[in-house]
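A reminder from the course coordinator: this example appears on the midterm review sheet, so study it carefully.

Given structure:
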């Protein structure tokens, strides 16, 4: 079974939580793309839902699949957001932003009653940090912001190489919001909550890819089956199916 097959299994399992009339956040990335395609098939079969995409790429996919769309200007609360992750730890904290959509992804997730994360089980880690942490920044004052990020990391007892993300054209990658991304290669983040708070104080940082306390559940697919991790009363429990 290929990683792509596992991603589609996770997406199909999350789709079981969708009910008629729901307002949905539609994530970005290869796993979320499977969810959008499967949801589109349900919509064409009569399911009545409306979605808020987290990127222009997802918007195009959803439109192609026939999913009705809205915005958070028209709807200020969503029932469920379904999105992927680059890393998931045992407390359901995440690293996201490998696709560059972290700002919109976090806004949509925060506006949702529930966030369901879908992934193959390779994304589950003991400690976040193996995947480079995306940090979305304002282009103005790049050197000053980079220095502030280095100081923030040092105050949390960590260090690593900071790389400005490049696009396919070799120039700086530009997000849907017109910002740049610095990828922090840290290896390990012992206290993700502390780092998240520290980065948020930097004026040039628009957002970062640490999603702390936002995920309600995670659907992880492996060749052995589906594992579901749920957050309830501040604790995370798991079951297999």
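Designed residues:
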């Amino acid at each position: 079974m290929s990683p792509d097959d596992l991603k589609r299994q996770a997406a199909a399992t999350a789709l079981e939580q969708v009910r008629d009339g729901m307002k949905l956040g539609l994530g970005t990335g290869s796993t979320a793309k499977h969810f959008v395609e499967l949801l589109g098939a349900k919509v064409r079969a009569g399911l009545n839902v409306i979605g808020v995409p987290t990127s222009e790429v997802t918007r195009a996919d959803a439109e192609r699949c026939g999913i009705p769309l809205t915005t958070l200007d028209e709807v200020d609360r969503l029932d469920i957001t379904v999105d992927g992750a680059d890393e998931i730890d045992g407390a359901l904290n995440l690293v996201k932003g490998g696709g560059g959509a972290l700002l919109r992804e976090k806004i949509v997730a925060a506006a949702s009653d529930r966030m369901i994360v879908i992934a193959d089980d390779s994304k589950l880690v003991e400690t976040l940090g193996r995947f480079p942490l995306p940090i979305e920044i304002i282009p103005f004052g790049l050197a000053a912001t980079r220095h502030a990020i280095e100081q923030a990391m040092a105050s949390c007892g960590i260090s690593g190489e900071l790389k400005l993300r490049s696009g396919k054209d070799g120039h700086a990658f530009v997000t849907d919001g017109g910002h740049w991304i610095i990828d922090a290669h840290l290896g390990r983040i012992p206290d993700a909550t502390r780092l998240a708070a520290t980065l948020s104080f930097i004026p040039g940082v628009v957002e970062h890819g640490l999603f702390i306390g936002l995920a309600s559940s995670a659907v992880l697919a492996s060749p052995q089956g589906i594992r579901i991790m749920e957050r309830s009363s501040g604790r995370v429990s798991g079951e297999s199916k």
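The mean pLDDT is 95. Residues 133-204 form a domain with the Alpha-Beta Plaits fold (CATH 3.30.70.260).
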